[in-house]
Amino acid sequence: MKLKIDMHVHTTFSKDGYTSPGDLPKIIRMKRLNGVAVTDHDSVISKRFDLSSLERKGILIIPGIEVTTNQGHLIGLFVHDDLRPRLTPEETADEIHGQGGLVVAPHPYDVFSRGVNPSSLRGYIDAVEVINASSLPFRLSTLMAERAAERLNLPGLGGSDSHTPDTVGDAYTEVEVSNPYMDEVVKALRRGLTTPQGRSTSLKNRFKKLSLDLLK
User: Fold this and answer.
1) Long-range CB contacts for residues 47-50, cutoff 8 Å, separation at least 24
2) Does residue 89 have a cis bond before it (omega within 30 degrees)?
3) Closest Cα partner for 189 from 35, 9, 29?
């Protein structure tokens, strides 16, 4: 079976996020997803969810974080404790692996977001975010990330990089699993049983996010 999981979602616990964590289960169902990875900036908020109860209801909330390194952002999936910001990418990757997590290179070729070149982290990263719905220029950054994943023989993931409810699920990852549980998702990601899917976030929703930022 295939699960649809948005692997890059921010909540109000990111200073530029506008999605309430409590609304995520409802949003997941509304967007016809099976789950999301909550990847707030430099903060793990998984303790705010009853992950087991949600899993029994068919909703997966993957605990994660988007860490600011001294060269750009890295995502840690399946981590439960905060990580120190401003370390080197290699040190950050080691800390994520130390928690048993997976290291993802997000938006590596977005001209507006600070990503880390996946090729510089060979042996440290476990996947490349091939489709990031927020990245610009969308087609070029997607193509370059796809080629990097192929070159490094790493799984490609899709994530919306959503900061507002409307954009959750703009991009997501199809994960091939034998059952719809978290441990199966971990195994599938490690084995590369993933297919990134999605589209660029609409101009309307980009301007909506910008308007919210300006009103802060």
Assistant:
1) 47/80, 48/21, 49/21, 49/24
2) no
3) 35
What is the DSSP pairing of strand 156-159 with strand 171-176? unpaired
pTM for the predicted model, two decimal places: 0.97
Tokens of 140: 């070029």
pLDDT digits (tens, 9 = 90+) for 35-84: 999 999 999 998 889 999 999 999 999 999 999 999 999 999 999 999 99
pLDDT bucket at 28, cuts 50 / 70 / 90: very high
Q: How far is the C-alpha of 9 from the C-alpha of 184, rounded, in Å?
A: 21
Tell me the backbone φ, ψ of residue 38, rounded to 5 degrees.
Answer: -90, 115
CATH code for position 51: 3.20.20.140
DSSP 114: -
Q: How many domains does the chain have?
A: 1
Longest dimension (CA), the chain: 46
Give me the domain span that covers residue 39.
2-215
From CA 147, how far away is CA 130, in angstroms rounded?
Answer: 9
| Contact call for residues 190 and 102 (beta carbons, < 8 A) | yes
Which of 155, 170, 158, 173 has the alpha carbon at shortest distance from 204?
Answer: 170
